[in-house]
Amino acid sequence: MNALLIDDSRLARTELRHLLRAFSEVTVVGEARHAAEARQQIAALRPDVLFLDIHMPGETGFELLASLEGPAPRVIFTTAYDQYALQAFEVNALDYLLKPVSETRLAAALAKIRPLAAAAGAPAAEPEPALPTLAAHDQVFVKDGERCWFVRLADIRLFEISGSATRVYFEQHRPLIPRSLQQLEARLDPKVFFRANRQQIINLHWVAGIAPWFSNTLKISLREGPDVEVSRSQSGLFRELLSL
User: Fold this and answer.
1) What is the largest CA-CA distance in the chain?
2) Which of 65, 67, 219, 224 is 20 to 30 A distant from 43 in Cα terms?
3) What pLDDT score does 124 carry?
């Protein structure tokens, strides 16, 4: 698997590159010192996995991930701070390594990638028939543990990643369903449901207000909450789609 090291510390990149030499299946194809450089490297090198620092000049590692368009590489965070672990797993990070990175923890993180890499190299299975797109007036069955609902899509204001599942916001309920945002986005009407960022899809009919936010992004307020920050790339798309 091809790896890209993203860290503003040259010493940290050098130490990690040295550790990775013990793992023959990993090839370090490049290094980046900050988010802008990383975006160029990702586009040019198409790495399978990012070893990503969180605190960097300009943009954080989280902001870098939110700005990427299309499927992002697998991510293993490498940081000196432990308080961002929950946020890291909310963006589907494979692992969260505290500096100084030990060879034992690095081996455990790489062990999580091997099955994914093997699956990616396996012969493609016959594609399943595409499910039809759901309209806003359609009703869907939602089950969370022992509780069940039959709810109209029009009444769902937000889908939000929560760990390995997706949280569904409607009325006062917040059930979790075992679906990814990619699976949901493929069946939702794009005229009604908009992918605001890597973690959230909003129902445009529930938008109560829009405000400019940091770095030319947008902040959207939904009726009955919550507020949603639109990523930089999606903010541009939002303006383009909904402007006269």
Assistant:
1) 56
2) 219
3) 47
